[in-house]
Amino acid sequence: MSYDVSFIIPCYNEASYVVNCIASIRQQEIDPAVYEIIVVDNGSIDGTEEIAASLGAKVLINPRRGAAASRNFGASFAKGHMLAFVDADCILDSKWFITLAAHFLSPQVCAVAAPAIPVSEGITWVERAWSKVFVCFPRNVLHGVARVTNLASSNLLIRAEHFKNIGGFDEKLLSCEDYDLSQRLLHHGILLLDNNILVSHLRESKTIRELFNREVARGRYSLRCFKKNGFALGELPSAAIPIIFVCVLLTSVAIMCIQTKIAILLLSLLLCMPMIYIARSGMRFETTTGSLQEYIVVATYIVARSIAMIKEIYDICTVPWYGTKGVG
Description:
Order of helices and strands: EHEHEHEEHEEHEEHHEEHHHH
Distance between the termini: 42 Å
CATH class of the largest domain: Alpha Beta
Number of strands: 11
Oligomer: single chain
CATH architecture of the largest domain: Alpha-Beta Complex
Strand content: 15-25%
Shape: elongated
Number of helices: 11
Largest sheet: 8 strands, mixed
């Protein structure tokens, strides 16, 4: 039996999220007979597997580590003409599928997604500031449908034939695998972000420590994706800012003893970089507290991505197996 679409949810200890995710799929404005729900469990110990099965999902146990491997594993069993990858911590609007699937009337479109917006209640100031700077501005305030060079895998609808033709997600990437997939998909067609529909995202980094650790890991995999696929014009700032930060920092340290004033000037420039990044996003500073929080979050992002770049350069120079294993 074949289906119009297979919803694939990768899970690892998602018991507190998967119920609402599956419920949002069940509420899609389509005939239940035309879709299947596949939950791929990656070794959960919190009852995720049992909960998903009780909700009528087909549950698969994936022995391979990572979300990319779980998505590929689910896709290998899927019987849908379209594949809908949905993260367990996302809640779909009831019109998500019919809205996104309509874009496939154009044969040039091979994948489409909707903006994933964090919920506004019960979140920490770190989540709120991250959402404001990196999610809502400037990308997700656009109206209508935007042609893009990168789609997140948190909610992604793709033609099954295209997914198979490009070999699915790169399982060596434990992060940024969606960016890598997007770059390969661009050789086959158009990627669209439909801002007319929104997805609720229930989980972001809640503390500065979580944000820092996440962005160090993401930064390293992001650089590996850039190395593999090249730079997309829209992604250049995320790579250029850490490079500038590291170069200015190293220059400041190098000349501190002989050109103290210039070194202090350069260090002042580093302190201004988060403000420059925020201004680039088109945001307006609304309150002193809010602005300070946004500054701290952006500064954390820049420092973490800079450290990621230094670590990658170090591995390139010293580690023989560079690029063949995941980041530890």
